[in-house]
Structures are given as C-alpha cells and as structure tokens.
Design a protein that fits this description.
By secondary structure, the chain is an alpha/beta fold. Helix content is about 40%, strand content about 15%. It has a domain of about 230 residues: Rossmann fold (3-Layer(aba) Sandwich), CATH 3.40.50.720. The longest helix is centred in the first third of the chain and has 21 residues. It is globular, with a radius of gyration of 19 Å. Bound molecules: nicotinamide-adenine-dinucleotide and 2'deoxy-thymidine-5'-diphospho-alpha-D-glucose. The site of 2'deoxy-thymidine-5'-diphospho-alpha-D-glucose (DAU) has 19 residues, from helix 6 and strand 8. The site of nicotinamide-adenine-dinucleotide (NAD) has 29 residues, from helix 1, helix 4 and strand 5.
C-alpha cells in the first residue's frame, strides 16, 4: 500500500449528479474533518437537492463548468485534491448528440488536469468499465486493469480519451493522479433516464417498462455507496499513476433485473414492452476487482442485490417530488427514438 494521503479540502466535480452526490454525502458522513467544494454546472442531470441538508460549513456548492479555465484558476489553489465525477454520462444521449460529451468529458478533463499541474493538486479520475468495450455473453473472462481500450459508444470513447489524458499527464508532467473504472451503479438519486430508475418510475406512473433488444445484455451492478468507499480508498491509499477496477460481482441480465423490479413492485414479471435496441449495444460488462481488494483491502458491503434493489425502489416511491419533474421530458426523448 502507498503512503496514506490525508486530504482536508477537496473539490468534487459533478457533485450534484447521481454518483457524485452520493460520494459527497458519504464523505460528509464518514470524514467530518474534510471540506468539500462541489463544482457542478447543473446540467439536466445535476440537482442541488441531491446535496441539500448537508452542513454548510463543510459542503459548499460552486455552480460552474469544468471547461472554464479562468474559474479553475480562481477555485483550485488552496485545495489538496480534485475528485472528478462531472461528465455527460448517458450512452443513449451520446448516440443522439455526441458533441457535449466531447466537450465536457474530454476538454473538461484536460482543463482540470492543467489546473492540477499548475497548482500541484492531486487528481482522482472517476471512469467507467465501458472503456474496455464489451465481453461475450457466457464467457468466463472479466475486465482487468491492463486490458486494451476498445470503447463502443460516443460516451465510452470520450471517457476512454479522458483516461488516456490522465495517464499522459501523470507520466509526462508528474501529475499525482489515480483512475478508477467502475461498473453500473444503482441506488438513490439516479436520473430517471437510466435503466433501473426508468423502469421503477414507469411502474409508479402506470406505464409499461421498456427492455432494449433481446434483454440478454449483462451489466455488473454495484451499489453506489460501495463505489463511494472505493473512490475514497483509492484517493487516500491508492498508488499514484495506477488504475483500479471497481466491481461487486453483480452480473445480471437486463431481463432478470427488470423481472426482479416487477416482482418486488407486485407486478407480473412479464408485464413490459420490448423496444428498439440501442445501436452498438455492448453485450456484457464484468469487472475483476482483485487489484482493489488485494492492495487496498476494499470489499463491497452491499452484497444482496435484491435487497439493495428493494431499498432503491422504496427510495423512488418515497421521493416522487424529486423524480417527477424530469420524467415527462425524459420519456418524450425516448419516444422520439422509438425506445
Ligand atoms: P450524472 O449524469 O448523474 O451526473 C453528472 C454530473 O456532472 C451532473 O451533476 C452534471 O450537472 C455535472 N456536469 C456535467 N457537465 C458538467 C460540466 N461541464 N461542468 C461541471 N459539471 C458538469 O452522472 P453519474 O451517473 O453520476 O456519473 C458520474 C461519473 O461516474 C461520470 O464520470 C461517469 O462516467 C462515471 N461512472 C458512472 C457509472 C454509472 O453507473 N452511472 C459507472 C461508472 C462510472
Ligand atoms: O458500466 C458503467 C456505465 O453504466 C456508466 O459508465 C454509464 O455512465 C452508465 O449510464 C451505465 O451505462 P449503461 O449504458 O450500461 O446504463 P443504462 O442505465 O443506460 O442501461 C443499462 C442497460 O439497460 C443497458 O444494457 C441498456 C438497457 N436499457 C436501458 C434503458 C434506459 C434497457 O433495456 N431499457 C431502458 O429503458
């Protein structure tokens, strides 16, 4: 294990989105000595309510763009780390309109790396397993940190590009950076455009859930709280320059996840619609988290997926005021795409 890094004042980009806000809440609950500055542009996916109620002397929101170099010059000095979650994150949106993905995910990461270089600030880059492309259904192999990059979608190709920038800025300029590539997260505060919240809120609205293609595609689900702990462990104890894969042995087909949602919500498990497949749809993701487990002693705590899913469903049932405003526009967008 590397020397322990003890940050006191961190910037969390994208801290009003799904995973970023769960991370901010987790840090506030578990590391009360750490001050968090959330830098978030508040796009359609960012919601200040996601971090509402946290102590104002420890969590501060700055509304701004990670591409804004002047803002970074004002904000970054004095902080000891940036944890970078901000991104355009949805594959379907990237297929319909890739430009914001190139801007935020590639240019935004570049600007943050330049600020870290200039002010000697440590950088943790939150990335995705999708940079490795996909695996065949049923094969035993899982992604490993040194696998080749083979991204399929505009989204994953911009995340892959940003990972490569981080690697180069570490090697060439000595920026103290780490990277994590995580599998599919689930939990509270996830936007209704994503698979699990979309289906849960469809059922709550009296609409039928929608399954793409054959429904056989496999995702490797991890509770977002386990991801938060992994990011913290890598930031504080990970080796600079290294990549860690984060996953919780959660492989399931989309059809199985959807049937579980319907059962848990007291519906017929076949009560859904088959819709047009996603172009270039990755078949299977699966993470080998051995490096993270062996080097840093990280283990997932949310190991019962059905129980985590039931709690996530209960969260959406109890937070209609949170998701309802985004639901109609999201479904209108999907309807245009035949999904
Ligand atoms: P999200 O879409 O819910 O949130 C993204 C956040 O970034 C929002 O708050 C948005 O307002 C903010 N943002 C977007 N563009 C910005 C800009 N230019 N400047 C400042 N803020 C901006 O995303 P998420 O699902 O929480 O994903 C967070 C990160 O984790 C992303 O980098 C994503 O690639 C990565 N990731 C996600 C998953 C997953 O399952 N969702 C899995 C692995 C990795
Ligand atoms: O693997 C990590 C990635 O997981 C992250 O990098 C992305 O930011 C995150 O969005 C997620 O990507 P996916 O494309 O896997 O997630 P999504 O929720 O969009 O879809 C999950 C699966 O469900 C995928 O196989 C497509 C399918 N799907 C999705 C929707 C929205 C459906 O069958 N029906 C749907 O309505």
């Amino acid at each position: 294990m590397a020397d322990v890094f003890e940050p006191r004042d961190i910037i969390v980009t994208g801290g009003c989105g799904f995973i970023g806000s769960n991370f901010v809440r987790w840090v506030a609950a578990n590391h009360p000595g750490v001050h968090v500055t959330v830098l978030d542009r508040l796009t359609y996916a960012g919601n200040p309510e996601n971090i509402a109620g946290l102590p104002g002397d420890r969590v501060e929101l700055v509304v701004g763009d990670v591409c804004d170099a002047d803002l970074l010059d004002r904000l970054v000095p004095g902080h000891d780390a940036i944890v970078h979650f901000a991104a355009e994150s949805h594959n379907d949106n990237s297929i319909a309109g890739p430009e914001p993905f190139v801007r935020t995910n590639v240019v935004g990461t570049y600007r943050l790396l330049e600020a870290c270089r200039k002010y000697d600030v440590r950088f943790h880059h939150v990335s995705t397993d999708e940079v490795y492309g996909d695996l065949a259904l049923g094969e035993p192999r899982r992604f490993e940190p040194d696998d080749p990059y083979r991204p399929s979608s505009p989204y994953s190709s911009t995340k892959a590009s940003s990972d490569l920038l981080v690697r180069a800025w570490h090697r060439t300029y000595g920026v103290r950076a780490t990277i994590s590539n995580c599998s599919n997260n689930y939990g509270p505060y996830q936007h209704v455009e994503k698979f699990i919240p979309r289906q849960v809120t469809n059922v709550l609205c009296g609409a039928r859930p929608k399954l793409y293609g054959t429904g056989e595609n496999v995702r490797d689900w991890i509770h977002t709280e386990d991801h938060s702990r992994a990011v913290w462990d890598i930031l504080t104890c990970g080796r600079v320059g290294e990549t860690y894969l984060v996953g919780a042995d959660g492989e399931r087909s989309n059809k199985d996840v959807l049937r579980a949602i319907l059962e848990l919500m007291g519906r017929d498990p076949d009560d859904f619609d088959w819709v047009r497949d996603r172009p270039g749809h990755d078949r299977r993701y699966a993470i080998d988290p051995t490096k993270l487990e062996r080097e840093l002693g990280w283990r997932p705590l949310h190991t019962d997926f059905r129980e985590g899913l039931a709690r996530t469903i209960a969260w959406y049932e109890g937070h209609e005021g949170w998701w309802r405003p985004a639901k109609e526009a999201t479904e209108a967008k999907y309807a245009k795409q035949g999904q």
